[in-house]
Amino acid sequence: MTTSSKTFFKASLVAMSVAAASSAYSAGFALNDHSATASGKALAGVAATNEDISGSFWNPALFTNANKTTVYASGAYVMPSMEVSNIAANNSAIAGGTSISGSTSNNDSVDNTLVPSLYIAKPLSDKTIAGLSLNVPFGLSGNYGDEWAGRFHATETSLQDIALSFALAHRLNDWASVGASVQLHKAEVVLGSAVGFVGREGDGRIQADDTGYGYSFGVALEPKKGTRLGLGYRSEVDLDFEGDVKYTDVADLNAVLTARGMANLVDTTLSDSITLPSVLTVSLEQEVTKDLTFGLTAIKTGWSALDGLNIDFDSGQSNSVLTFGFEDQWMYAAGLTFAYSDKLTLRSGIAMDNSPVTDEYRSARTPDGDRKWISVGGTYDFNDMTSATFAFTHVMIEDVSVNRTGLTEDAARGKLQADYSSSANTISVAMNMAF
């Protein structure tokens, strides 16, 4: 047994990454479908829109779009597809070693996901509006299974971050509004992988959670009739995850470890701290004619705040380290909104969403590439109080390769090489009701 295979169990499970393959809709592991209205135009003009209150996720000042008590409920069904091919794994991260058996392709590792959003606005006066929203800013769900050759790097991965926001927005005058919110975040992560070494394998599973806090603020301007500008900022969120790791089918593995004078794998508790990134959104909407509006948006996500994982086990085993190497990135969007009739509004948009993942640190949990969006959508007004909105988005994702070779932090995981081809389709629907 090689030195690296002796230590495979130490970190293969806990290569904890909150950016996994199934986050196919938005770059990194952000979930950007918080509004069927915004999705129909690929988020173009989202922080400056005067259409409804759902843009308040990006700019809380947009709660001032409500003149009455308003409820906006939206849901997005994300259908990702990912093909993994040319998979090759080795039990040594540097040189030598032996190949790890298992499937060399994987086409069923990502799951369909429902992303809900809810917004409620209540005017407190002619100028001041209280807002409440519930969103899932970050999330993913996927499972490679335990038969593929890269199982020591990852099997199961899921993350869910639910944010409850309380906001106030105020109209300063006829052309300027401001807003701010405080947010309560509840995040949970589940991670699994094979543990041990070839011939003496078991399974390990991490489950951890934490509660964190964030804030947002924004401004919406209309300096000239038909020209709208918006800026919104969502803060970083610090999370101190605590949870446990549980092992199954490790009796034979522990017997070998005992015979070699090595510590057994035992269920234990763990902790780690991460920071969810900030989001800065800048938008413009320009009414070209009374029926046609052009929109632009630029979104900067501060991914570099999420530098990696350094998981501490209360059992005393060595920390597990995984470097993300994320870089801050921008998303750019352009779109059109067309008032087809008094009751029907149509939308379309395109976007370029740049991935924060670098080639050097791309992993089985972060096989991310740049994305291009093509979106269409529309809203039908049943009456002055109720409307329904739909959107469809096709996401094209750059083909990428994972090449985990020669990294010291992979000494307990081994080498992994694989090619990834991904895409996603998303259907969004929403109801907007005023009382």
What is the β-strand count? 19
- N→C terminal distance: 70 Å
Assign the CATH class: Mainly Beta
Helix content: under 10%
Low-confidence stretches: 1-23
Number of helix segments?
4
The major sheet is characterized as: 14 strands, antiparallel, barrel
User: Which structural class do you get from the secondary structure elements?
Assistant: mainly beta
CATH superfamily caption = Outer membrane protein transport protein (OMPP1/FadL/TodX)
Oligomer: single chain
Write down the overall geometry: elongated
Instruction: Give the SSE string.
Output: HHHEEEEEEEEHEEEEEEEEEEE
Question: What proportion strand?
Answer: over 45%
Average residue pLDDT: 89
Question: At CATH's second level, what is the architecture?
Answer: Beta Barrel
- The CATH topology assignment is Porin
Account of the 3D structure:
The chain is mainly beta. The protein has a single domain (3-434), classed as Outer membrane protein transport protein (OMPP1/FadL/TodX) (Porin). It has helices at residues 3-6, 8-11, 36-39, 251-259; strands at 70-90, 113-123, 128-143, 156-171, 176-197, 200-224, 227-234, 237-248, 268-276, 279-287, 292-301, 308-313, 320-323, 329-339, 344-353, 371-381, 386-397, 400-404, 415-434. It has a 14-stranded antiparallel barrel. Strand 12 and strand 13 (320-323) form a beta hairpin. Mean pLDDT is 89; it is low at 1-23.
Concise overview:
The protein is mostly beta strands and about 425 residues long. Helices cover about 5% and strands about 55% of the residues.
Notable features of this structure?
single chain, about 425 residues, mainly beta, Porin, 14-stranded antiparallel beta barrel, 4 helices, about 5% helix
